[in-house]
């Protein structure tokens, strides 16, 4: 394994194709990035449908987005992308060859249903007499032995389970065959051997959840109301066994008291996994919040050992849960005692600080099961000659986190280590970046461009509006009377076709929509479903495929705006849907086709910030053949990493940094500007112009580039507490690290060193966790124990957040005698300088919560785990680039789950500490990810813009200039000669600010003209 920075060695006859193994969220993201940057992708999964575990989740923390709702547009993108071949229900047999040129053999299992012929209708399922447990619902409900994996499955094709089908067992039945209109059932289908040739491989086979039946003390499968967290996800889900009603399995009654037991199969040195599973604290908090939304009277308790809310937005989410009435977080080991025979309730026993042991009864107990390496890991490792680590996950190093032990094969997602969705998506893009670098000479060699039918001219045609109303499973239909809406919409003027769909965004519904547009000669389409933010492009695509201009489309959000906000009042919700549909139809009738412009782009990237993230991104782009400008405000490259000497797993950061700086400096495609400030920033995706003042002389230069990556890092918080700055014996953890590396004299007479955590983090001023400090404390404590084993080292902490495999080092530190003492936020430690018996000491006092006693520690040195704070320059930069910051002044991504390194502004990306505090390995992955996302733009010859933008009626414009002053995108300028406003359609984002302010009504926003909006207002009052 390399150090992750050398250029991939090109080998003869590279193939411009990649196999992505595993089509969970990680695999899907990697496939999309690669296919959109010029590579052919084979997306292979052993399951009959893509989606992995995320497809089973109800909603996702900390934004509570509905998992399927954010996944299904990705499914459709994969399905429709001509450069992605999905190979589902397939197992890997062998891999021969080398980086750049692999030959992969696969076996595709028989579904006994022809994938080409099956249209995904449920008729065969309805006729099948054999009921089997539904694995999608974690066996809490039944399906049939011919089944479609789940409602929005892609491919939407049935599959027969031969182990339960009567034909295979007894040569009987075959009820499904005659009822299939498409003659898709094929009981004689055989397994198929496939061979594909690819240049690179990405492994994304994800994880399995820990099986609690392996440890009898959990009572799982013995006590009927003890369930796993994944089962609870299905119970909460609208497509779950109880259609989203919160019920318990034993008697289908609504529970009044639910307990969560944390760390089931994680952080367990006896029979479970020793590492922390990284997501369970957060998903338990999410489940508490969602359960309380189902029933505000519910009593909940989470029994835990540290709450590891270490990610962006997590601490606030945790605080929100903590401050909800009826929610308790109890720091205690808990025993599951027994089931009460009459009620089937479960009795738990736990210790309460200060008042001994207590027993408590719950209606339902949820086991927060950990994440284990996938069952196929060992076999994959043997077949691919890729090593696994001691936990059975993919072996990698913290300085080359995406590489496996075999060149040309990369890993991402939970197969790398337990992680959440945003981290899985980030790693996936990062792995795609490495493949792009390896195969850059073959970019475009095997890809094709998607062709659409010619656009139909609808000018002059009377409106023929089609209305599609979505049930969203039961998300909408449970509250809204959808049939009434359908009947109502049929009577609206201009409407010629109305239908309802269980899931309008499922692949068959979208295909069907395109067919219906053609069959019914629709020239306007209204979809009443969920949010246009994620789904509008999906439906617009259906219009394009049917030959309609995509802007002849109007979308109504009847989920967030009707069924969710009016969930207690069916009448009100249904009436509101009718009103919104009536308004949308009124507007749709006036919609006009909108043009798109195609323009050429600059194939260079600008990276702002020359720390590890910026340099990795720069190299990743340069190694794909793109020119890069790297802007660093300091004199030298390196950023924060210049003060870090080793990672917790012992890698030498300074050596890595030296190599990285050298690789960047010697790369002919990278132009480095140090002591450089950005003076001006203008333009748009594909064509940005940045003015910089660089070097000691502050020479001003203009740089043209197509993409921008923000990698401006963060700063170490300088505290005023605990005598910092007043007493030289008080250091930050970074300062302590420097002292350790220098083998400072100070340690010679140091008998006791105390580290206090959460200094400046998780407080009212900075209510976020700085993520790295717990592991940083452990790392330094271990080093100290190594150089002076007899030194007493204490770590005073609130929650030890050594997530993932970092837990191993926490345990090792405890084993080596480091003492960990927990304190509460409202009873922080106290430090005073004292002199006793001629000895100068720092006296640290802290209350140990389980003992309830104040402890005194006399320390020689004190180190503080201080916060990581956003760079002081972020505000100015955010204004220059017109990109947002979050509440803590870190840069804000377009979508926390699905676009974790993209800004909402096209063509601008972020990585590293500028996004949020993180470790070096995470920064490297994110930097690669930003490069991958940027390459999806740079790999194109041209891009299109236009559509919903503003335009000026020159005859009416009075040339007052208000629009020019207001436009946040500098898209409107006043032509000096004609004194008329002009809109640059490429720059315009269609925000409508200029239109609202124009005193003469000369600027109109296409797709939102005054006439169209007025028609909606009139329709609103026309009920
Ligand atoms: C109860 C629970 C709740 C959670 N809630 C959240 C949440 O709210 N927010 C959040 O961010 N995260 C949450 N997570 C974590 C989240 O599920 C993961 O971060 C994410 O799904 C990981 O995606 P992945 O693609 O790496 O893996 P997976 O989703 O496991 O996908 C792996 C894919 O690989 C396929 N595969 C496996 N082996 C092979 C093979 N040999 N050949 C071919 N294909 C193979 C599988 O069939 C699967 O499709 C939760 C986890 C659990 C257990």
Can you describe what's shown?
The protein is 26% helix and 25% strand. The longest helix has 21 residues, at 570-590. The chain is built from 25 helices and 52 strands. Strand 42 and strand 43 form a beta hairpin. It is an alpha/beta fold and 1023 residues long. Mean pLDDT is 95; it is low at 6-12. A five-stranded parallel beta sheet has the order 5-2-1-13-24. It has a five-stranded parallel beta sheet with strand order 15-22-16-17-18. The protein has a five-stranded parallel beta sheet with strand order 32-31-30-36-47. The chain is globular, with a radius of gyration of 30 Å. Flavin-adenine dinucleotide binds next to helix 1, helix 6, helix 7 and helix 10.
Q: Total number of helical segments? A: 25
- Residue share in helices? 25-40%
Whole-number mean pLDDT: 95
Q: Total number of β-strand segments? A: 52
Shape: globular
Q: What is the assembly state of the chains in this entry?
A: single chain
Query: Largest beta sheet: what is the strand line-up?
Result: 5-2-1-13-24
The rounded Rg comes to 30 Å
* Uncertain segments: 6-12
- DSSP strand content: 25-35%
Helix/strand/pairing category: alpha/beta
Task: Please summarize the sheet with the most strands.
Answer: 5 strands, parallel
- Bound compounds, please? flavin-adenine dinucleotide
Please report the distance between the alpha carbons of the first and last residues. 68 Å
């Amino acid at each position: 394994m390399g150090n992750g920075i050398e250029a991939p060695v090109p080998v003869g006859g590279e193939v411009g194709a990649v196999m992505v193994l595993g089509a969970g969220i990680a695999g899907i993201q990697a496939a999309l990035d690669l296919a959109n940057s010029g590579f052919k992708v084979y997306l292979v999964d052993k399951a009959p449908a893509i989606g992995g575990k995320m497809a089973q989740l109800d909603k996702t923390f900390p934004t509570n987005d509905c998992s399927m709702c954010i996944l299904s547009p990705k499914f459709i993108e994969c399905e429709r992308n001509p450069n992605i071949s999905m190979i589902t229900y397939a197992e890997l047999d062998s891999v021969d060859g080398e980086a750049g040129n692999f030959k992969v053999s696969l076996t595709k299992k028989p579904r006994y249903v022809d994938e080409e012929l099956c249209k995904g209708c449920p008729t065969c399922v309805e006729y099948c007499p054999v009921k089997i447990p539904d694995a999608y619902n974690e066996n809490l409900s039944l399906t049939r032995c011919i089944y479609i994996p789940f409602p929005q499955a892609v491919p939407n094709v049935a599959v027969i389970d031969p182990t339960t089908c009567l034909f295979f067992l007894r040569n009987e039945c075959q009820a499904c065959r005659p009822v299939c209109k498409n003659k898709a059932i094929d009981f004689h289908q055989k397994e198929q051997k496939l061979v594909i040739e690819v240049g690179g491989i990405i492994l994304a086979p994800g994880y399995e959840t820990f099986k609690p039946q392996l440890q009898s003390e959990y009572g799982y499968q013995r006590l009927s109301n003890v369930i796993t967290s994944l089962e609870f996800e299905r119970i909460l889900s609208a497509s779950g066994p109880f259609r989203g009603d919160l019920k318990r399995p034993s008697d289908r009654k609504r529970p009044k008291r639910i307990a969560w037991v944390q760390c089931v199969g994680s952080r367990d040195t006896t029979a479970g996994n020793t590492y922390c599973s990284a997501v369970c604290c957060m998903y338990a908090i999410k489940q508490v919040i969602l359960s309380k939304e189902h029933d505000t009277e519910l009593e909940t308790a989470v029994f835990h050992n540290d709450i590891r809310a270490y990610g962006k937005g997590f601490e606030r989410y945790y605080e929100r849960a903590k401050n909800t009435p009826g929610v308790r977080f109890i720091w205690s080991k808990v025993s599951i005692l027994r089931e009460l025979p009459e009620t089937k309730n479960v009795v738990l026993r736990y210790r309460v600080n200060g008042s001994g042991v207590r027993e408590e009864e719950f209606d339902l107990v949820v086991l927060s099961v950990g994440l284990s390496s996938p069952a196929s890991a060992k076999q994959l490792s043997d077949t691919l000659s890729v090593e696994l680590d001691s936990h059975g996950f993919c072996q990698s190093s913290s300085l080359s986190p995406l590489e496996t032990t075999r060149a040309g094969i990369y890993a991402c997602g939970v197969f790398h280590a337990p992680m959440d969705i945003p981290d899985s998506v980030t790693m996936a893009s990062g792995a795609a970046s490495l493949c792009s670098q390896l195969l850059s000479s073959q970019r475009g060699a095997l890809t094709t461009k998607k062709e659409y039918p010619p656009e139909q001219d609808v000018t002059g045609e009377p409106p023929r509006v089609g209305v599609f109303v979505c049930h969203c499973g039961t998300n909408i239909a449970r509250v809204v009377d959808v049939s009434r809406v359908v009947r109502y919409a049929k009577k609206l003027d201009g409407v010629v076709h109305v239908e309802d769909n269980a899931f309008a965004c499922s692949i068959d519904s979208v295909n069907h929509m395109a067919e219906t547009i053609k069959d019914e000669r629709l020239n306007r389409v209204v979809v009443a479903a969920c949010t246009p933010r994620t789904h509008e492009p999906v439906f617009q695509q259906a219009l394009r495929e049917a030959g309609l201009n995509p802007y002849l489309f109007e979308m109504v959000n009847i989920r967030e705006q009707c069924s969710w906000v009016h969930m207690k009042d069916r009448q009100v919700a249904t009436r509101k849907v009718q009103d919104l549909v009536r308004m949308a139809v009124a507007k749709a009738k006036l919609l006009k086709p909108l043009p798109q412009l195609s323009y050429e782009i600059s194939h260079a990237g600008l990276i702002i910030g020359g720390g590890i993230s910026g340099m990795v991104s720069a190299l990743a782009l340069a190694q794909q053949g793109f020119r890069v400008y790297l802007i660093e405000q300091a004199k030298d490259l390196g950023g924060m990493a210049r003060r870090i000497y080793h990672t917790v797993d012992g890698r030498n950061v300074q050596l890595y940094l030296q190599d990285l700086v050298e690789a960047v400096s010697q790369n002919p495609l990278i132009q480095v500007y140090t002591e450089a400030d950005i003076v001006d920033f203008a333009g748009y995706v594909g064509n940005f112009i940045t003015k910089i003042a660089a070097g000691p002389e502050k020479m001003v230069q203009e740089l043209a580039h197509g993409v921008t990556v923000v990698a401006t890092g963060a700063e170490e918080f300088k505290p005023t507490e605990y005598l910092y700055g007043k007493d030289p014996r008080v250091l930050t953890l970074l300062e302590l690290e420097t002292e350790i590396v220098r083998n400072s004299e100070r340690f010679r007479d140091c008998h006791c060193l105390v580290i206090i955590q959460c200094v400046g983090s998780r407080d009212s001023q900075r209510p976020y966790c700085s993520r790295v400090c717990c592991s940083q404390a452990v790392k330094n404590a271990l080093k100290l124990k190594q150089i002076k084993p007899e030194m007493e080292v204490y770590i005073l902490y609130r929650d030890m957040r050594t997530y993932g495999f970092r837990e191993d080092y926490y345990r090792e530190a405890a084993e080596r005698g480091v003492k960990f003492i927990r304190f509460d936020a409202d009873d922080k430690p106290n430090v005073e300088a004292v002199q006793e018996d001629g000895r100068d000491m720092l006296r640290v006092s802290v209350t140990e919560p389980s003992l309830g006693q104040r402890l005194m520690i006399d320390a020689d040195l004190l180190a503080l785990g201080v916060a990581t704070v956003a760079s002081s320059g972020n505000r100015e930069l955010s204004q220059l680039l017109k990109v947002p910051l979050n509440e803590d002044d870190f840069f804000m991504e377009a979508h926390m789950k699905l676009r974790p390194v993209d800004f909402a502004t096209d063509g601008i990306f972020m990585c590293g500490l500028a996004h949020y505090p993180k470790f070096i390995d995470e920064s490297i992955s994110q930097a690669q990810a930003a490069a991958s996302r940027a390459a999806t733009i740079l790999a194109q010859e041209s891009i299109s813009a236009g559509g919903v933008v503003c335009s000026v009626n020159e005859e009416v414009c009075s040339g007052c200039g208000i629009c020019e002053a207001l436009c946040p995108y500098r898209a409107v300028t006043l032509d000096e000669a004609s004194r008329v406003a002009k809109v640059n359609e490429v720059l315009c984002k269609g925000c409508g600010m200029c239109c609202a302010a124009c005193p003469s009504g000369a600027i109109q926003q296409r797709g939102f003209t005054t006439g169209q909006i007025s028609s909606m207002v009139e329709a609103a009052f026309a009920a």
